[in-house]
Amino acid sequence: MNFFEFEDRLIPLGDWIQFLVDFLVENYRGFFQTLKLPVEKTLETLEWGFTSAHPLIIMAIFAFLAWKLAGKRVTIFTLATLFFIGMLGLWEDAMITMAMVMSSVIFCGLVGVPLGIMSGRSDRAEVAIRPFLDAMQTTPAFVYIVPVVMLFSIGTVSGVLATIVFAMPPIIRLTSLGIRHVDKELIEAAQAFGATPKQTLFKVQIPLAMPSIMAGLNQTIMMSLSMVVIAALIGAGGLGSPVFQGLNTLDIGLASVGGISIVLMAMMLDRITQGLSKKRKRKK
Length: 284
Fold this sequence. Notes:
Blueprint lengths: L12 H23 L1 H16 L2 H16 L1 H16 L3 H31 L1 H16 L2 H12 L3 H25 L3 H9 L4 H30 L1 H5 L7 H10 L2 H32 L1
Helix pairs in contact: 1-7, 2-5, 3-4, 3-13, 4-13, 5-6, 5-8, 5-10, 6-8, 7-8, 8-10, 9-10, 10-13, 12-13
């Protein structure tokens, strides 16, 4: 056998990974079921709120947010988007998707922002975190959906957990970038006036890095929506379901309706979050 012909598998990496996942499933499944509990409760609460409230109430809430954060044009677009999705008969699916996206964004923010701050303030932390972020962003979603299903079973919660893994890197990277780009002279000035490291972080670095953090939040929302169809493969439901059903039955109309609804919802959330970022810049 010529070693450099690479005809045979010399490193059984796939077998090792399968063994590791099987070991975790057999010995720590209870731990992972407990780990998913906060995500499950958050998702159930949001899903109940979005699906049980009258559509006009939901439309009014989003219209108010759009008006306060982004102006009249975005408000009109928000109302038109929600009304159009409702007229397509996809209101409940859209609300399930909204609950999934909001749940994902909440946990991405809770975990991603502190990690981004830590990465932005420490070169060692950045070096340690960067390979994981590279792997999370470049690994195809179908690859880590398999262990997610094995550890957490199928369903909407597993879809949210897979979405969190997929959508977290942008908010970590952009938070770190924002912290690192704060003018060092401003930090030195704060320290010269006797500010503690905690005060410097919360009074100087985070406020000045907020535009970058908001950009990371925006990208996290967009990437969460891009996972909707893939999450439908493991029973997540939402707007990914009609796309998946259309793919299975070659029903281009059904798939297009689901896809257009996802695009419109993404545009709506993008305009609202951009409006929030611009409003903070004007205040600054």
